[in-house]
Design a protein that fits this description.
Strand content: 15-25%
Low-confidence stretches: 15-19
Radius of gyration: 39 Å
Number of helices: 25
Helix content: 25-40%
Strand order of the largest sheet: 2-1-12-11
Mean pLDDT: 94
Largest sheet: 4 strands, mixed
Oligomer: single chain
């Protein structure tokens, strides 16, 4: 037994050794380094021999091991010739460690990618072809010396999100390139590239101001891919860094600074102490989210983790003269009467104006030189500036900067809304327009309006005010009433010219379907017409500003109010005496069951709905009696205003209902023609209709279902275009005949 055991052990050990050898061979064949795999990036560049300067930088930056071991990098490597040119241009005799680190880290992009893939956006759903023009590099800025809002020296780190700082994100800078697949897909050309780099040749293989050298791209390495470029690239500044260091934009920078907050960050403070050995509080420089974007944020919107590959910010930075000129002519124009003489003082009393001025120059999209009109700024405006206004242009790490010699004339300042927005005497109106959602339409440059301005002193006298202390309900007073009043002060013009309010006369439809009238320098509404508080029932127009790009602003001292009277009371006003123009019509109306003599309400006429009342002349009523449409003597036409029989009562109600257009007001303004429903309905609920066949400022003709036409009487002494409660009353020269 003792002799057999050693032999068995020997055999087992032999088998184990043989099996182990076989398994190792299989393991090496499967997991071992392929024989055809290139050396690591560092070693390949070393072998090539014309990258000594770049490798010196790699050594100084401490990245030799990183580029010599496992990983996945895209490296844009400049040649020794590129370094020689760079050092000559910058009068350098050597590349010091700090600069070497910037060059190397900016040349390194996360993930090894061939040139063919660089134009594709690596989204959360996979690659999207030909939509990328940037990649995140290894380079990022760390803590730097700055000053807080009070001018105290502090340690600062830039925000890496809009309105916040995340300690887990290093705020890496991106490298911008101009490759043919992306440029063609985006309909961009050499002109877009050369706008930024006028002294360089566009080849469709441009990495910033450098160029990929033909035949020296897609060099496969063990730890990534190498692309050889003909120039040394250094990290560009961010928009924030550039504006801060350029004195031409110092005034605009001072405005940006008003929206910065410095927040102590303990994580970065600890990291700074560990890395430098110096204990110091570090503050994150965070821009307010009221701005369109944070100029110091190297990330993009972060709607996708890699969306900075396909998008960037843009800024049209106005120089000092441009800001000062615009401030004098626009921003401070109305505030000087309040003793506000500069932008710092304006920020204290109206920070929203400064905010909107800044945002009018900020774009959360990439504005290419050939596509200025394809992008809207943070306020929804397309830039009004052209390439002729550009004094300089920069491809920066987080977007494009265009230095301009003229400020953007934003819609919030240049439209009819601007007259309300900029003038402190109209602050309640401004706040109410925004609160009620009425301001947006007024800011639209392509749609023409007239705005009748209502000063604060008038609105306060009427019981309205603005108090921001009540955040959810800052407009104090009857909100329903104020909204209706303000809607009456907004007049859509369509394609019409601004009327001559000084010498002309006419009637205009307000945004809520109600109407106002003007006559030789005065203006009035249904409410002022009834008011005993407004002198002569009209509001004198102090002035009219036609400066807005989309209409005009009318200045008066009172408000265009609405009437609290029902329509019947305005008919009664001109129908009480036998000589009154509405007499016969009103006598039938007041005696009918559809009319409330106390309130003036007419059955079927609903609050909040617009109407047109068509009142036949007294003579026309007589003719309607003769035609058998109204009760009375068909021979003489003498009316029976208060019939006692059912047939007569029904005749009157149907006649009146057919002379009331439902859900629309029609006046002699040339705007509305076509078919309209009346209040009269058949037993099946279908409304009887009339047609407006002619509408101009001097004529208004209607046709009934029989084909007969009547005209609205528009003479000086006629009672047409009479303003009422969401209605207008017209006198017509005949009557309208219905058929059921």
């Amino acid at each position: 037994m003792s002799k057999i055991l050693p032999k068995i052990l020997t055999v087992c050990l032999t088998i184990i050794v043989m099996m182990s050898g076989c398994r190792k061979k299989e393991f090496d064949e499967f997991y071992g380094r392929p024989e055809n795999l290139g050396d690591p990036i560092y070693q390949q560049l070393q072998t090539k021999g014309n990258f000594t300067k770049f490798l010196e930088c790699v050594d100084k930056a401490g990245y030799k091991e990183t580029l010599s071991t496992a990983g996945s990098w895209t490296v844009f490597a400049p040649t020794d010739d590129a370094f020689a040119a760079y050092m000559k241009e910058n009068a350098l005799t050597e590349i010091k460690a700090d600069l070497a680190s910037k060059i190397v880290r900016y040349s390194m992009v996360y993930d090894g990618e061939k040139v063919e893939r660089l134009s594709d956006f690596f989204s959360s759903k996979g690659f999207i072809k030909n939509t990328a023009f940037r990649r995140r590099t290894v380079y990022y800025d760390f803590v730097y010396d700055g000053k807080d809002n009070n001018g105290n020296a502090i340690k600062v780190i830039d925000a890496n999100r809009h309105g916040s700082y995340l300690s887990t994100d290093f705020n890496n800078k991106n490298i911008t390139y101009f490759l043919a697949p992306f440029m063609a897909f985006s309909s961009l050309s050499a002109a877009d590239y050369n706008f930024f780099y006028p002294n360089n040749t566009y080849s469709g293989s441009n990495i910033g101001e450098a160029r990929l050298i033909d035949g020296q791209t897609n060099i496969i390495a063990e730890n990534g891919i190498i692309h050889i470029i003909d120039k040394v690239l250094v990290p560009p500044l961010s928009i924030d860094q550039y504006v801060n260091q350029k004195s031409d934009y110092s005034v605009f920078k001072s405005l940006l600074d008003k929206f910065v907050n410095y927040s102590l960050n303990t994580d970065v403070s600890h990291r700074y102490e560990v890395l430098t050995g110096k204990a110091s509080n570090v503050y994150a420089k965070v821009y307010s989210t009221s701005l369109a974007f944070s100029p110091n944020n190297e990330n993009y919107l972060k709607l996708d983790a890699n969306d900075a590959q396909t998008g960037s910010y843009s800024i049209f930075a106005p120089n000092n003269d441009a800001v000062n000129t615009y401030a004098k002519n626009v921003l401070l124009k109305y505030w000087k009467k309040r003793g506000v003489n500069n932008l710092n003082e304006l920020y204290v009393v109206a920070p929203d104006l400064i905010r909107d001025f800044i945002n009018s120059h900020l774009f959360t999209t990439t504005v290419w030189p050939s596509k200025f009109t394809n992008n809207s700024n943070a306020l929804g405006d397309v830039t009004k500036l052209t390439t002729a206004n550009i004094t300089e242009k920069q491809v920066l790490s987080n977007g494009f900067l265009y230095g301009v010699n003229k400020a953007q004339d934003a819609s919030v300042f240049s439209t009819v809304y601007g007259n309300v927005n900029l003038d402190p005497d109209y602050n309640i109106m401004k706040q109410a327009l925004n609160y009620f959602g009425l301001a947006t339409q007024l800011k639209t440059q392509s749609i023409k309006y007239i705005v009748v301005m209502v000063p604060d002193v008038t609105l306060r006298k009427m019981g309205f005010n603005y108090d921001p202390f009540f955040a959810s309900a800052p407009i104090r007073g009857d909100n329903t009433a104020l909204k209706r009043i303000l809607q009456t002060h907004i007049i859509p013009l369509g394609d019409r010219a601004v009327p001559n309010f000084a010498t002309g006369s006419g009637i205009l439809e307000a945004s809520n379907g109600e109407y106002i009238k003007y006559d030789k320098g005065k203006i009035f509404s249904a409410g002022t017409q009834d008011s005993t508080l407004v002198a002569k029932q009209t509001i004198p127009i102090d002035s009219t500003s036609t400066a807005p790009v989309n209409g005009a602003a009318i200045y008066g001292k009172e408000a265009l109010t609405y009437t609290s009277l029902n329509i019947g009371k305005h008919i009664e006003k001109y129908g009480t005496l036998a000589t009154d123009p509405y007499y016969n019509f009103f006598q039938y109306l007041k005696s009918n069951l559809i009319y409330n003599q106390t309130t003036g309400a007419i059955t079927g006429v609903t609050d909040g709905v617009n109407y047109t009342i068509l009142v036949p002349t007294n003579a026309a009523i007589v003719n309607a009696v003769k035609a058998g449409l109204l009760p009375g003597n068909i021979t003489t036409g003498a009316p029976t205003f208060a019939p006692s029989d059912g047939i007569g009562i029904t005749q009157v109600s149907k006649f009146i209902q057919y002379h009331i257009i439902n859900k629309s007001t029609v006046v002699s303004d040339g705007q509305k023609t076509g078919q309209f429903e009346t209040l009269l309905k058949n037993d099946g609920g279908d409304a009887a209709k009339i047609n407006v066949v002619l509408n101009s400022t001097t004529a208004l003709t209607l046709r009934d279902v029989t084909g007969a036409t009547v005209n609205v009487l528009l003479g000086t002494n006629d009672r047409s275009n009479v303003l009422s409660n969401r209605a207008v009353i017209h006198q017509i020269n005949g009557y309208l005949k219905y058929q059921f």
